[in-house]
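Q: For a teaching session next week I want to show students how multiple molecules come together into a single three-dimensional assembly. I've collected the sequence lines for a complex. Could you give me the predicted C-alpha cells for the whole thing so I can convert them for display?
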Amino acid sequence: MRREDQWRDELESHIAMRAELNRRQGMTTEEARRAAEKAFGNQAQISEHVRAIRVPEWLEHLRQDLQYAWRGLRRSPGFTLTVEAAIAIGIGASTAVFSFTDRMLFSPLPYAQERDLVWLGMAAPIWGESEFLLSYDFDAWRRQQTAFTAMVSSAGTGDCDLMDNEPVRLRCAPVDPGFLALFGLSPQLGREFSAKDDQPGAPPTALIANGLWRSRFGGNAGVLGQTIEIDGRNVRVIGVLPRDFELPSLAQADILRPHQRDPRAQGNPLLHVFARLKPGVSLAEAAARLEPLYRQSLKSVPPELVKDIRFAIHPLRERQIRDTRRAAMLLQTAVGLVLLISIANVANLLIARAASRDRELAVRAAMGAGSGRLLRQSLTESLLLSAIGGAAGAGLAAALLQLFAATAPAGIARLDQATLDGRVLAATIGASLLAGLLFGLAAAIQKPNLESLTGGRVAGPRRQWLRPALVVAQIALSLVLLCGAGLLLHSLWRLSNVQLGMRTESLIAVQIQLPRPRYPERGQQLAFWEAMEERLGRLPGVSQFAITNSLPPSGQAMNTIYALMEIQGRGRAAADGVGGMVVIRQVTPGYFPALQIPIRRGREFTEDDRRRKDPVTILNETLAAKLFPNRDPIGQRIKSGNTGWMEVIGIAANVRNAGLERVPDPEFYMVKRHDPADGRFTNTIVLAAPPAIVPVIRDEIRRVDPRLTVQVDTVEQRVGKLQAKPRFQTLLLGGFALAGLLLTAIGLYGVIALLVAQRTPEIGIRMALGATSADVRRMILSQAGAWLGAGLSLGLMAAVAARRLIESLLFGTAPDAPVPLLAAVAALSAAAMLAAWLPARRAARIDPVRALRYE
Amino acid sequence: MAPLELLILKTLEAAPNHGFGITLHIQTVSGGLLSVEEGSLYPALHRLEKDGLLASEWSTTAASRKARFYRLTPNGRKRLAKAREQWAETAKGVNRIMRFV
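A: Of course. Below is the structure for the complete assembly, covering every listed component.
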C-alpha cells in the first residue's frame, strides 16, 4: 500500500530528526534514537488513527477482515491448500467441460435465422444414420415443394488434390448454386456460384475456405479469378468463404465446387439436403406437406427396401449435435458430480475449521467483537477462499481446455472452437461463492460458546449430523463417477482386445486416389495399379503384397443389400426386408496371406483367377452360413447386382469389417482381374514390410507419377484411430473420477482427523481405563467404515439409476457388469480406509496422561 | 477549530514545514510553554490535509534529509484568517470572564 509506506517514511523521518537533535544535545546515538521513539509514544496506535482519517470506516473494516482472514489462512497452510485445491479442481474442471459442451450444444450456429433451417431426407439403416435424397428425387422435390423458401443440396465431401509446387490433399464438397444464400451467408470475397456455373460442361469454378486462402494464398485478394489445378483440372477461384464458415453437415471442406450434375447422365448420387422453412410454417406442417412427395419417391425404391426407409426432417442444430449429445451429457453429469463433491468438501472443511476455532472466536467475542462483526469475519474468510480458489480454477480451466483440444480425436463438433466461457466461469465461481457463503454462515451462525474458554470440553450435539452427511454424500457421488469410469475403461479394454480376425503388425497401408481428369479411362487406371504391383511387389523387404479397394476394420467399404443377392437356381436370397448390408471387397490374390485371413474351406484366389472369363468369389463365414444354411457353398453360383454369376471357390474366416464395435457383416471377395473393367480410381496397397521401407515406397510411386498425393499409415495406426474417440471419453471420465476420489479421500481424512482431535480427552480416558491402541484404532476405523458403508450403498443405487446415460457409449460391457462396479467399490473403499487410517493411527498413539491434562 | 489545528495553520502561514519542524516551532515560539505531542500532531495534520486546508509533498530539509513538507492551501489561508478572528473573540470573552471573577 503506497499510502501506508508514505506514512511509515514520514514517521521515520520525524524520529530521525528528533534523534539528531537529541544527539546534538549530548546523548549517545543509541540513547538519542530511543528517546526519539519514546517521544513518539505508541506508534501503532497513531498509525491506526492516521489510517482511520484516510479511509472510510467500512473499507477499513473490510481491510482488517481481509488481513485477519489472510493471516488465518497463512497460519494453517495445510487447510488452506486443501480447500483451494478442492475449489480449483471443482471450478476448473466444470468450467472447462461446460465451456466446450456449451459451445457444442447451445452456441448459435454461424447462420442467419438458424431456427428455420432444417436437414431432411430419407433415412435408412443401410446408409448409416444420415439422411439423404437421391439426386433424382431431390430435383423433383425442389420443383414441387411448398414448405420451404429454398432447398439446396451438397454431396458428401471427398478427397481432392490441389496441385502446384507442393501438392496437397484437401476436402472438396460439391454444392448447389445459392447454397450460401440459403444459410444467409455471402463470400468474404468474390461471389457465390450462379446457375451458369452449375451447368454441366461450364468452366470449372471454386470457392475456397478462408483458412486455405490465408495459408496458401497469403490472404491476397488477387486470388480471385486465379486458376488453380484441382485433381488435374484447371479451376477458377471465384470467391473466398467467410472466416467462420462451416458446412451444415460439419464435415471439413476446403473447397466448394458446383455439382454440375447432368440429369441425363447415369448415376443417381446421394445428396445431403438442407432447406429453410417458409415464415409461419412449422416443422410438422412442412413434414405433412412433403409427405406426398415422399410417397412418390418410394415408388421407385425396390420393394424390399421400402420397409427400412423412413422420412426424416430435423432442425439443423438438433441434427448436428445428435451424435455428440450423449457424450456431452455424460461429461456434464460427470463434471457436475465433481463440482458437487468439491463443494461438499469445502463445506465440510469450513465447518470443521469453525468447530476447531470455537475457542478463538469465543476470545474475540469476550474482547467485545460484536456478533455481526464475527459473522462478517467468518464470511470474509470463506469468500477469500472462494475467490483465490476461483482464480486458480480459471487458470486450471484454461489449461484443461487446451489439453482437451490437443488430445481430442477429430470429429467432435466444434471442440476446437471452444474458449473459456466467461458466463460459465462466472456461474461456477458463483456456485462456489454461494457455497462458501452458505457454509461460512452455517459455521458462523452459532454464537461462540463462551464456555469453551474454560478450557474444558464443550459437550453438545452441535452440527454432529451435517459433516457425516456431507462425507456420505461425497462417497456416494464419487462412487457414481468411479462406476462410470470403470465401465468405460472396461469397455475400452474390450475394444482394444477385439479379435480383428486379421493381422495388423508390420503391415503398411498406402492409400492412393487417382485424379479423375488425368486417368479418365479405366485402362489407364488399371495400368497404374499394375505398375504399382510390378514395382512395389518386388521391392526387397516386402514379404507380402496386395491391392484392395478397401481395408477392414473400418466400415468404409463398397457394399450392397443382402436382399439383392441371388443364388443360381434359387432366385433372390430370402430376407426379411433388406436383410442388412453385405460388404464387397475386390482384392488381389496376395490379400489373404498378407492379412493372414484363414481360408476355412475351398481355396484362395490364384493368379489364374485373374485371367479367367468366368468370375469366382470367396464368401466370409457369415455370408456363407446365411446364403447356404444347410448346403455346401463351394461350387454354387451367386450374383449381386451387375457382378454376373460368380462361382464360390472358398470360405474365408470372418474379419471385423463394420468398425470395431459391431459384429462382422456378411462379406464376399472378388478378385482384381487383369481387365480394364476392374480399373479403379482408389485403392489401398497393403505391404508386409518394415516401416523403414516407407521412403522407398514413396520414391517408387513418384517414379510412376510424381504428382500424386499418397497417404501412408501402418495398419496398426489405422486401427488405433478407430479407438481414438472412446479413448478420449475414457480419459476424460477417468480424470474426473480420479479428481472425485481424491477430493472424497481428502474430505474423509479432514473429518476423521478433526474427530480424533475433538475426542482426544475421551480417548485418553478410554486408554486410561484399559483400552489398547488397537481398540482405539478399531473405534475410529469403524466410524469411518459406517460412513463408507452408507455412502457405498447410496452410491450404488445412484450408479444403477444413472447407467442408462452411459449405455450407448459402451462396447462389449453391460452397464451393470459386476467387474467394473466391484473395482470401483474396491478402489473407493481402499482410498477411504487409507484416509481414515492416518488419523486413526494418530489416535492410537495418544498419550492418556497428556490427553487428560487438557481436561 | 481545535487549538492544535489553529497552531498548525499559524505555523505554516510563514513557510511550509514538516511535522518535526512544526513541533519545534510551536515549542520555541511559545517559549517552551506549549509542547505538541506527536501522537496528536500527525492525526491532526492528516485530518487537515484530508479537509483540503493543507497540502503536502516530499522534499529535502536544509540538512538534506527527506521529509514530508506541509503547506497552507488557499482554503487553509482563508480558514486561518477566520479562525484567528474567532480565536480573538473567544480569547476576549475568556479574558473578560477571568477578569470578572
